[in-house]
Amino acid sequence: MEERTLSSRILPDPHRAGLSCAEAREAARSVLAGLHTSPAGVDNVLTVVTEMISNASRHAGGATDFQITARPGTVTVQVSDRSLSPPRIQPWAPDQPGGFGWRLVNQLATTDVHLHRGGKTVTATLTAAAIVQA
Fold it and tell me: Mean pLDDT in runs of 10 for the chain (134 residues)?
């Protein structure tokens, strides 16, 4: 059986503040539609996409590159930005708003951070347990 791989990449306009969560989610939905991912799996991927783009916007000046690659059993989300500071899990502070995004991404996916000359690329890989393909 042939393994199907679908991918989408967005390079935001360098004159803007980066990629919006809505643009990234739309690209993710298009890719996932081609693999017949379950609604729960789509929700998990969209949560990861939203948190990663939002974190790049809040903490790193905006995303400079976004790529999503999906194949049966695995979805990989990559977000690049200009910051050399790696994301970190915030201390648990239930009385303060925010600070849970990176923790959530790490609960749904395996993550990796690669520092490079232009900043960093954060990769989150969701496996079959998180994407629950139909």
Answer: 73 74 94 86 95 93 92 92 90 76 94 95 91 64
